Amino acid sequence: MALVDSNYRFLYVDVGCNGRVSDGGVFRGCSLQQSLEQKTANIPDPAPLSGTELLSPYTIVADEAFPLKEYILKPYSSHGLTKEQRIFNYRLSRARRVVENAFGILANRWRVFTTKIHLQPETVDKIVLACTVLHNVLRDQCGDGYTQLPSERDGPGEHGPTLAQAALPRSTNTTLQAKRNRDILCNYMCSDAGAVAWQWDKIESCVWV
Questions:
Q1: Model confidence over 130-164: pLDDT tens digits?
Q2: If DSSP codes are grouped into helix, strand and coil, which group holds residue 90?
Q3: What is the tens place of the pLDDT at every residue in 164-198?
Q4: In whole angstroms, how far apart are CA 157 and each of 77, 151, 154?
Q5: Three-class SS of residue 24?
Q6: Would you state the torsion angle of the CA atoms of residues 124, 130, 136, 139, taken in this order, to the nearest 10 degrees?
Q7: Which contiguous run of DSSP H or E holds residue 12?
Q8: Number of Cα atoms under 13 Å in the Cβ half of residue 138
Q9: Could you write out the DSSP letters of every residue in 107-161?
Q10: pTM (2 decimals)?
């Protein structure tokens, strides 16, 4: 499991957990979750949303495998969504594409990840950590020459990502404040200050079940 920034750099990596453990289970047992709960992760104070005076906390963008927290932003449930909530889910999925791309870059550049590694788990963990460090170094030194991704500029001609949604862990504890924070962002993304021109067409062209 990893946390990445908008430049595809790995900020935090957790390795060594058994593959059958869910993403939410891995997160609950990692040091990052503990740091976020204890407020020792040096997260900046809430900042105004662009074009408004509404304060919004810095959050980690995640999928439905993770609990909704004040520091974790996840999509609305896929049933009975309003148009505004579908807009929010679409915009959130675009943001989540960054981490998907980071893993894709890592696997394509270090092809050992495209096949089974016949080594002891402890050695595999070291390989993964070493590759993420090298990935960050090359990203810093070579920039787009290393990543060679298609343009990430938003535009009406781009298709939204298709991401599989994992099951929600039973132990999820959703706080009222976390729900309020998500609703504030949802409303902002549909306002004049926070909307992007093509988002309405994207939602209209999608088939929702």
A1: 999 999 999 999 887 887 654 444 444 444 433 33
A2: helix
A3: 333 434 444 568 999 999 999 999 999 999 999 88
A4: 27, 12, 8
A5: helix
A6: -90
A7: strand 10-13
A8: 16
A9: HHHSGGGGS---S-HHHHHHHHHHHHHHHHHHHHHHTHHHH-PPP----TTPPPP
A10: 0.79
